[in-house]
Structures are given as C-alpha cells and as structure tokens.
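Q: Can I see a sequence and its folded structure?
A: Here is a first one.
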Amino acid sequence: MQACYEQRRMFEKGNLLLFRPFVFKNGATPEDKFFISLGELDEGILLASLPTSQKTRFSGRDVETGCNELDGGRTNVYKFKAGDLAAKSADGREYCFPKDTYVIGKDLDTYPTISFLFQKHKGLLDNVKDYGMIVPEQMDKLIDCLKKSKAVRNKYKTIL
C-alpha cells in the first residue's frame, strides 16, 4: 500500500522529476530527462511534458520567458528562464533550471504509470530525483499557456 501512495505522490500534478535515465516510448536511446506531471487522464495514465533545453526543437528562435505562440499558433513554447525559481520540495529546497528550459505544447504526451514500475523492475531506472512541485506562479502560467494554445490537442486541454 505504501508503494502505491509513494508512486501516486511522485506523479502528482506539478511534480518535477529527473529520470536517470528516461526510457522513451518510441525506443530512442534512454537519457537523463526531466518530467513534469501535468495531470491524470484516467487512473494510472498521466499527461506530462518532457521539457528540453534544446532550442532546436522550435527552430532555435529566441523566445521570451513564459508563454510564446509562434508560427501563427502552430508552435507553443513555455520558457523557464535559467536561474529563476522553478520548483520547491516539501522540505523547502528550491530548484532553478541551470539552462533556459522549454515546454513545447505539441510535445505533451501520455504515459501509463505502470510502464515506470516495469522500467524500475527491469533496472532501467537507476535513479529518479524528485525536485518537488513547480512553484504555483510558474505552474499557473504554464497551465494557462497550454490551455490557450492552438498547438495543444483539445483532449489534453480538458485535462489541464
């Protein structure tokens, strides 16, 4: 029972996790990856973002901190500025991304929590670091940005 509670808390909306490594659904080479839980569709199915520090994901253009709609709304990017407070743990530890970090609206995806348990069982998850919750000011702006975006699927907007 305790494991279920810990897993549930781990994937609570707004939680920032770092998977070392993250095993991608498409079979790409596992790598260390941040994971922001954005909500739950059904029991055990998460809506999440895998933020990136790679500007090439949106043609390398400079974007402002916060919400950005590019290409007439076809591309949505939320920027966490390097050094700004991004998350806070239950014990008060604060986390700032060391590089500008981006959530790309069209890259939101769903993940069954059981797949993470399977990866852990197979020894594919060496370490998952929990940085705590995205701070409310950032989380509210991120959710609002994604909800208003033309690039985010409607089925995901209802979850947000």
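Q: Show me another, different protein.
A: A second, unrelated one:
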Amino acid sequence: MFTNTPFRMLQQKKNAIPAASPVMPVPEAPAPESAGSPDEEALRAMMDGAAPIDHRLVRPEPQIAEPRIVDDQEWVIQELDDLVNGRTVFDIADTDEYIEASVQGLDQRIVKKLRRGDYSFQSHLDLHGFTRVEARARVAAFIDDAHRRGLRCVLIVHGRGLGSKDHMPVLKEKLRAWLTRGALGRKVLAFTSARPYDGGTGAVYVLLRG
C-alpha cells in the first residue's frame, strides 16, 4: 500500500485558492446622437432631394427675329418720308462692279478704313438662294438685330449675279437702295464692297450707327 500521496497536497492547495469572479462583458457605448442644431436640421430637411447646381455658364445663342415681309408700298412711304425730312442723305460712289456709300459729312478716313477691311465684321448674312422680296426681309431683320445688339460692322453677301437669268447682280443693286433709304438707312453710316478674301464685289461691309 502506497503512503506517498503528492497529488493530495496539490488538491488541498487548489481548494484553498478562491474562485475568480466571472468577467462581466463591457457594454458598447451608444452611437453619438447628431449634434446638429434645430436650424441645421431644418436646413437639411429643406435640401432633401435638391439637385446639385451646375456651375457651368451656358451662353444662349442670339436669336434673330423672323423676317417680316414688307410690301413695296410701305417701303416707298418710308423713303418718301426720309426725302421730305432730309434724313439719311448718302454720298454714293460706285462702278459696275464696286459699290460704296456713306452718310454726308462722315469722315472719309473712316470710309477708307472700311474699304480696306480694317474693321472686323462681327456677323454676316448670306443672301444666296433668296428672292428679291425674301432678301429684303432678311436684310431688314439682320440689320435691326445687329443694331440692337450694338454691333458696329457686319458683312452681307449678295453674290455677283452669275447664277441669275441675265447674269445681272439684281440683289447688289437692290441692296444699295435698301441700305441708303427708309428705316434701314437710318441705322447705316457707310458700306463698301468687301476685300477679295471676304467675298470681293459679291459682298459688302456695312458700318452701323452706334
């Protein structure tokens, strides 16, 4: 029979050690509530669903009014009214190919610069394919719009008449009359045939009143 019992002593020491207290789980901290003020809350509610602002600037294209067809009688009345009241008297100097006119008293240095193409035109109108009546309405609308926008120099392409029935520059002759008479004449300071690179004798530079 064994009398040596070492494990009994170990068991007695184990029983003498007090049992450890159970570890209690640490509760998680609650999520912090929004610190926003009532004003901020109201602002967020107002912005809910709002679309972001597009900061790119979109510049609208200028719109020219639809040309109004004016009958011959109205044009004649306008021209007669100008003649009676002495308005828009032009000095005209042209040839079979070249046309030029300026209001009386205009500094001829200005006309010379216009003739040389020193003034950059800011808009242009091409009359190819239009009848005489349509072209006159287009010119009236174009000049009115350019004058309203504050443009000073424009280009009107009238063609040389090579495609017309008699190869005559009908629109060229009419354009000279339209730009020196009536309501249009009161908006024009001068006009000259263009330089070759801008259409030559098939186009005119038009200098508008300010």
